[in-house]
């Protein structure tokens, strides 16, 4: 959802996964900025995925979180050539018995705010209390209670046991949260890699895992992270300040060096990381954790 744009650690993590490639996110119908007409069945969600996929043009690499695995796996099973690869983050074969199924106990509708707040704490444990509150409010606005009820009803009727066996593309499965069913999911997939659960499904570490396990299956050129870029400590500090929007004069003052020296450092940084301007350098810094 668009909420990630308001939480810097989350949006930076998404850029870290994309690492220089185009990144597209979308809101399911009935949520966020999408039309308010609710889906009525899994078929509706598959039509939505097909429309987004067609709009992208070239087959994308897709990341599906939690219950989004239900339409994602179903779509991948019936349209094997539509996507290049798939990342399933904290997926499940069925809703019952999964962390999300446990959190969605009967009666959650009676206290939707409390339900969303508990989901936020579970899925985003690293956020500060203020950031967690932003996510909770945006989640409630973007996914009204009636929309959530429809999605959970659709999810509860799905069992992916057969569909997982028919997914023919490379899949990276990330365990995610305590109680995850990722191992069960990975065992059913014919071409899966079970990722290290120590890192998030987004961010530079996740992209490193994708480069190591999925890219070779696609004959993908390694991402820039795989190239050893050696910045000096001073260059790293200049890049950090540049990414924060600090002007050259201010950088020079903070480091007790001349503006000309700052300009020389920036020229060296551009050459080393392969960019041409401050915007590209700032994007590179965010994607590579220099911020």
Low-confidence stretches: none
The assigned structural class equals: mainly alpha
Mean residue pLDDT: 85
Tally the helices. Answer: 15
Q: Per CATH, what is the topology of the largest domain?
A: Rossmann fold
Strand content: 5-15%
CATH superfamily of the largest domain: Alpha/Beta hydrolase fold, catalytic domain
Q: Please state the overall shape, judged from the principal axes of the Cα atoms.
A: globular
Number of E-state strands = 4
Helix content: 40-55%
Sheet with most strands: 4 strands, parallel
Number of structural domains: 2
Named CATH architecture of the largest domain:
3-Layer(aba) Sandwich
Radius of gyration from the alpha-carbon trace, in angstroms: 21 Å
State the CATH class of the largest domain.
Alpha Beta
The main sheet orders its strands as 1-2-3-4
Could you characterize what this model shows?
The protein has a 4-stranded parallel β-sheet with strand order 1-2-3-4, covered by helices on one side. It has 2 domains: 2-223, 3-Layer(aba) Sandwich (Rossmann fold); 228-287, Arc Repressor Mutant, subunit A, CATH 1.10.10.10. With 291 residues, it is mainly alpha-helical. Helix 1 (8-18) runs parallel beside helix 10 (204-213) and helix 12 (233-243) packs across helix 15. The radius of gyration is 21 Å and the shape is globular. It has helices spanning 8-18, 42-56, 69-78, 99-103, 112-123, 129-142, 145-156, 161-165, 182-188, 204-213, 215-218, 233-243, 248-255, 259-273, 278-287, and strands at residues 61-65, 85-89, 171-174, 192-194.
């Amino acid at each position: 959802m668009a909420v990630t744009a308001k939480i810097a650690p989350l949006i930076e993590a998404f850029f870290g996964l994309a690492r220089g490639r185009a990144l597209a996110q979308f809101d399911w119908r009935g949520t966020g900025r999408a039309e308010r007409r609710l889906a009525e069945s899994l078929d509706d969600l598959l039509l939505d995925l097909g429309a987004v996929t067609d709009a992208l043009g070239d087959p994308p690499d897709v990341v599906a979180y939690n219950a989004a695995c239900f339409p994602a796996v179903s779509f991948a099973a019936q349209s094997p050539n539509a996507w290049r690869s798939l990342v399933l983050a904290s997926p499940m074969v069925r809703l019952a018995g999964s962390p999300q199924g446990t959190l969605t106990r009967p009666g959650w509708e009676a206290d939707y705010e409390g339900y969303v707040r508990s989901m936020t704490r579970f899925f985003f444990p690293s956020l500060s209390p203020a950031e967690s509150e932003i996510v909770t409010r945006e989640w409630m606005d973007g996914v009204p209670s009636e929309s959530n009820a429809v999605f959970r009803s659709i999810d509860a009727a799905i069992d992916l046991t057969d569909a997982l066996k028919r997914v023919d593309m490379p899949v990276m499965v990330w365990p995610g949260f305590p109680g995850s069913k990722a191992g069960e999911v990975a065992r059913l997939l014919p071409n899966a890699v079970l990722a290290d659960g120590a890192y998030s499904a987004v961010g530079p570490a996740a992209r490193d895992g994708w480069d190591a396990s999925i890219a070779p299956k696609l004959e993908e050129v390694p991402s820039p992270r795989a190239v050893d870029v050696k910045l000096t400590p001073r260059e790293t500090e200049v890049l950090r300040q540049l990414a924060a929007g600090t002007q050259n004069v201010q950088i020079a003052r903070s480091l007790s060096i001349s503006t000309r020296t700052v300009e020389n450092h920036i020229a060296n940084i551009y050459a080393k990381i392969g960019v041409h301007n401050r915007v590209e350098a700032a994007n590179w810094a965010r994607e590579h954790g220099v911020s």
